[in-house]
Amino acid sequence: MALSVEESSRLAGLLTGHAERIMQRWTEIAAGSLRGRLSQGELRRQMQELHSSMIIASEQGAVDLDSEQATELRAVLSELSRGRARQGFSASETAVSVFALKDVLLELMEAEGGPHTLRDYVAFSGLVDQMGLFTFESFVRTRESLIADQAEQLLELSTPVVKLWEGVVAVPLVGTLDSARAQVVMERLLQTLVDTGSPYAIIDITGVPAVDTQVAQHILKTVVAARLMGADCIISGIRPQIAQTIVALGIEFGDIATKASLADALRHVLRLTGVETGRRQRREA
Fold this sequence. Notes:
Layout: H1 5-17, H2 19-34, H3 40-59, H4 71-87, H5 91-112, H6 117-157, E1 162-165, E2 168-174, H7 179-196, E3 200-207, H8 213-228, E4 232-236, H9 240-249, E5 257-259, H10 262-272, H11 278-284
């Protein structure tokens, strides 16, 4: 339900004429729902910004939250939602801080009385309801964005590319390799190959619990991409169970070198580069 222009004007007068009383009670009621998790100073600042933006919107004749005159009010509500989401508050706690204004307005309008009290309160409550719902929706969008960012960061942390030797990098994979993670693996490996100029890369799947056709395809695509960058790949961590699964599935690695362990793969690469390994040196001795 939208406010009339007259109701919007009366709301501006109410918010302006009883500013200090409204701010004090609004902050008190909102603080009760937050259980001391936000300082009184910070909470009052947030309520002050909302109060000021509501006065501006009402004075300009805003009839609902979608009005052009309520642009600043929407911006303040969005900022409140983003801040609360980052601070760990729930969507309900954030919306309740806005809905608390209804209790304040009811107390004030009951004390004042007047011919338009009931009708005005219903209209004012409708606007506050819109503000609370807008806050809730903004909060959810912010939380979804934070979760997506955290998921991306976890993907990057779970796919490190390390330099083992001059000209040799390795990607130790741990856990399930799905399409999203495979893309991150490929991007990070290719970027490292460019940055280091390494001609060899070891993809270690010791920590991958199982290799099925999909996982194998992801690995093969990564190898092909690395070859296009001029680097040869060696796959290490081929345990007996994984070897049996690969054979049973009929997966072909072609001419890609495979080794049982990361150490074996590194020795293989060092032999290719002409570096004498300790094992070979001891045999020759």
